[in-house]
Amino acid sequence: MEKSNKQKTKYTILIKNFAKSFSLGILCLILLWVLSLYFTNNKISIDSILKFHNTNLVFFVTVDLLPLFLAIYGLYISNKRFEEMTKVKKALTLQTENIKKTALFAEKIGNGDFEYEYAVNGENDVLGNSLIEMRNSLLASSKREQDYNWIVSSVSEVGELLRSNNELVLLSELIISFLTRKINAVQGAFYIVNYDNEKDVFIELVGSYAYNKKKYFKGKFYFGQGLVGQAIIEQDTVYRTEIPQDYVSISSGLLGEQKPKAILIVPLINEEKVYGAVEFAGFESFTPLQIKFIQELSDILARTISSVKINENTVRLLAEVNKSQQRTHVLLENASEVIGIYDAKGVVSYISPSVRNILGYDPEDIIGKNETDRVHEKGVETVNKMFSDLNKNPENPVTVQYTYIRPDGSRIWVESTGRNLIDNPSVNGILLNTIDITERRKGEIEQRERAKMQALSENSPDIILRFDINYNVSYINPVITKYTGIAANKFLSVHLDNLSLKPEIISKWREIIASVVAKSKSSITEMEFNHHADDKLFMKVSALPEFKKNGELESVLMILHDITDEKVAEHTIQIANRKVTDSINYALRIQNSILPQEVVIQDVFKESFVLFRPKDVVSGDFPFFYQKGSDIYFAAVDCTGHGVPGALLSVIGSLILTELVTHETLTPSVVLDKLHESVVRTLRQGQIGGENERDGMDVGLCRLNLITGEFMFSGAHRPLYIVRHDQKEDEELEQIKGDNYPIGGVQYRGRQKFTNFETTLKKGDKIFICSDGYPDQFGGEDSENLKKIGPKKIRKLLVENKDLNMLETHTKLVDYFDTWKGESKQLDDVLFLGVKFMPVQR
């Protein structure tokens, strides 16, 4: 249908131009006949013409066919121009669609929608390919963050389990069952090193779990014996995917007996002492993330085993209380915990002498007082609940942690395990074993922070390294291997000058470190990192000074972030932007070739101006000017949008307006009615599949007779201002508001025909029309409360400057706009036309 309409339009234009050219040829032929008879002294008549033809056959052949030649030439030129305009429209439409599609994809990425489907327009779609690469990079970064969050949250869950129980066997079973499920293993085992007898130190299996059930296995190993003994004696993780033939198989009612495909053993180490190990078997390989998670628990579990062992020793000591009072006193005084007996309400009846060394109080300062008197306010509820739970459930021990206030006001963290022994005649009260866990808490906090930093560092895509003040490498993360091919351990404790890197890299690092050391301030710079001959890498280097507690500089931390992709993308985007800019500039040339130039308008109206300021390169606003005899049509047109979309609509509007006023002399209101119909039809508004239901234009259209001063105006959402030559200072100018609906769009139901305003202009009268870009501009003197210029200020400005010529009026309007706008952005295209009527003599 669209193609058919296009052909009809084409044929109509070709026929009209053929007719015009043929008519012009007829007029020229008649003129040549008359001139020929005149210069040959023949009478001008039909007979003379026929006689002349009889005597001049050559004249007949060469001249009489002139109308046909002109018609054919006009038909050729018209067809060529029509095809060129069709190509321009098609190119603009395609460019606009590509820009919208790419902008939508960029918006989806900015909103976090990484799954949005987007197809690039071939290998030359540089911007599209760059956006896809950016999306992939963001997805990879999101995955690393998810891995880090999983480790931190899982470690926290283990911490909760460790605080829930203080009995070693039960605790080991809880931990191994949780970890086995957490890393999707099919079997797990928890071992501790038994140091009770220095002459017989062995490894003991205390907890096992398989197929979602507790397993009752027994095991005893010595250092170096089997994979478990090997991991413990070497104090290093053992991970095997090639399992020995004699290794234990896994029995299942569903699977039969199968040998595992992967074995993971992690020793539990604290302060270089091994307290045990955890072992896992799986039918699938363990991921690096799962292995890293288990390794992060090594120190925490080792500390817990140590603490539980201490508690168990304390229980054994209490069992010997009745054997020897003197021995008990000595033991209690030197114990690593405080033993207290309390009544049901928490009042102390007995406290061990160790309270002096651990909590800082003498026993007599505490006996007879409530436990909560020395507890920080945030822990009071915890302690009261402990006593309440012990009274309600005497058979269940309770372990809590809280902050204790020492006599000097300092605070320490303690852990108390309470048992209700009120019915025991030897105790006759609630027994509390309290230990100082301040260092353990600090260690846990440090371990969590270290785990966070370690996880961030080990999994970071950036190169992270630390130099001491002597330029020796004290830390470097594994990613250095990716960029250099050199293992990270080859850098540790190596002086900067002895690193196996290119001299230019070492020189740049020395310069950065020296700057940080000299200024004791952070430094951010960029550098090339070309370790291999075919490398072309760029790094952003952030260097930070690290200080000791006394303020002395201890080391320099350097973080190298690979910005090669950003550099390439930046270059690519610059090329893409240049291509887009070139396309827009080409569109500007096309738009300028179609729209009237100010010099053409001023050739007709000597006293006139065109204030034209596009917001972007091309404009949705455009002036219209067409002369038809002594009648002049001129208009200020404001299309929907600005930039390329607005410019495309402006081309459509300009062509339709030209077509409408070319063939017949119409009133402005009729022109606007026909323009509205053409825009609705061209944009297929109101039809199925139409997507531009609200697109259109606001128009202020004038028709002025240069001789009589007869003036007509019709407005679509745009007003007309008339300043009469005899306008007085205190008089308001004439304002014709126009109709309150636009050209195009189907949202205005039941709209009427446009109204036609008529008047007669006298010599010196001035008329002004403009788009909404000028009155809608925000600005003003108060930068905190920006306002629009508004129509009222425009009317006042025109009246105040009514005596100025049109060039001076133009300058006043420009100055006022710039002053009002100030530092604010221009919001829309600006178009302002002014014409002073000066009659033309007949």
What does this structure look like?
This protein is of the alpha+beta class and 842 residues long. It is built from 22 helices and 31 strands. The strands form seven sheets. Strands 1, 2, 3, 4, 5, 8 and 9 form a seven-stranded antiparallel β-sheet that branches. A five-stranded antiparallel β-sheet has the order 11-10-14-13-12, sandwiched between helices. A hairpin with a 3-residue loop joins strand 6 and strand 7 (256-258). Helix 4 (66-110) runs parallel beside helix 5 and helix 19 (643-663) crosses helix 20 (668-682). It is elongated. The model is unreliable at 251-256 (pLDDT under 50).
Features:
842 residues; alpha+beta; seven-stranded antiparallel beta sheet; five-stranded antiparallel beta sheet
Please outline the helices and strands.
Elements: H1 2-39, H2 46-55, H3 57-63, H4 66-110, H5 126-164, H6 168-182, E1 187-194, E2 202-210, E3 213-214, E4 220-221, H7 226-234, E5 238-240, E6 250-252, E7 256-258, E8 262-270, E9 273-282, H8 288-296, H9 298-319, H10 325-333, E10 338-342, E11 348-351, H11 355-358, H12 363-366, H13 377-392, E12 398-405, E13 411-421, E14 429-436, H14 438-458, E15 463-468, E16 473-476, H15 480-484, H16 503-519, E17 523-528, E18 538-547, E19 553-562, H17 564-594, H18 598-604, E20 608-613, E21 621-628, E22 631-639, H19 643-663, H20 668-682, E23 697-705, E24 710-716, E25 720-723, E26 734-736, E27 757-760, E28 766-770, E29 778-779, E30 787-788, H21 790-800, H22 806-821, E31 830-836
Antiparallel strand pairs: 1-2, 1-9, 2-3, 2-4, 5-8, 6-7, 8-9, 10-11, 10-14, 12-13, 13-14, 15-16, 15-19, 17-18, 18-19, 20-31, 21-22, 22-23, 23-24, 24-27, 25-26, 25-28, 28-31, 29-30
Helix pairs in contact: 1-4, 4-5, 5-6, 5-8, 5-14, 17-19, 19-20
